[in-house]
């Protein structure tokens, strides 16, 4: 087993809660990937009850909150070999990454309480999928975490999934063929620590 999926929180406990650290320690030792998918967005009522906003706005926000918890909760400093992969291109985190880093520096009394490393210095330790629906958003994601840490995402079989799998990557004009191969499958091989040669072997 190369990894498994968990939610973005458990009850009132975000991903930085120390109750989860034994899990992180075992995952780091085993080399298992933790894929984080948002859920239970707490935004079902009021102004966000219309227009499918829990999914369109709530899920990206929930994912960004989960990433911030991991980065500012000292998780990746304590477990530097642990691989988190966040769904939907990291949600809204790429667009707020600069804001989060700025907040960490100007209000350390509120933001730097658990981690002495600024969040933007840890961005290249997280992974995300590529499901952003827009080449411009993919450009921002790559600038935030690096093109080596983006793997193909589909969100299949849900309506917000990519209708043509890999189309955003294929349409990304700044990529050469090698870059496209990395995002379409090569990065996932690295993230999951698969034997690339075995992928070409078929037994009958």
UniProtKB/TrEMBL annotation:
GO CC, one annotated term: cytosol
Pfam family, one: Amidohydro_2
Enzyme category, top tier: lyase
Keyword Lyase included in the entry's annotation: yes
GO BP term (any one): secondary metabolic process
Pathway: Secondary metabolite metabolism; quinolate metabolism
Documented EC number(s): 4.1.1.45
Gene3D superfamilies reported in the protein's UniProt record: Metal-dependent hydrolases (3.20.20.140)
One term of GO molecular function: metal ion binding
Domain Amidohydrolase-related residues, every copy: 2-194
Catalytic activity: 2-amino-3-carboxymuconate 6-semialdehyde + H(+) = 2-aminomuconate 6-semialdehyde + CO2
Alphabetically ordered keywords of this record: Decarboxylase, Lyase, Metal-binding, Zinc
InterPro entries recorded: ACMSD, Amidohydro-rel, Metal_Hydrolase
SUPFAM superfamilies, sorted: Metallo-dependent hydrolases
Zinc-finger among keywords: no
Protein task: Converts alpha-amino-beta-carboxymuconate-epsilon-semialdehyde (ACMS) to alpha-aminomuconate semialdehyde (AMS).
UniProt subunit comment: Monomer.
Family to which this protein belongs: Belongs to the metallo-dependent hydrolases superfamily. ACMSD family.
Protein name per the record: 2-amino-3-carboxymuconate-6-semialdehyde decarboxylase
Organism, as annotated: Caenorhabditis auriculariae
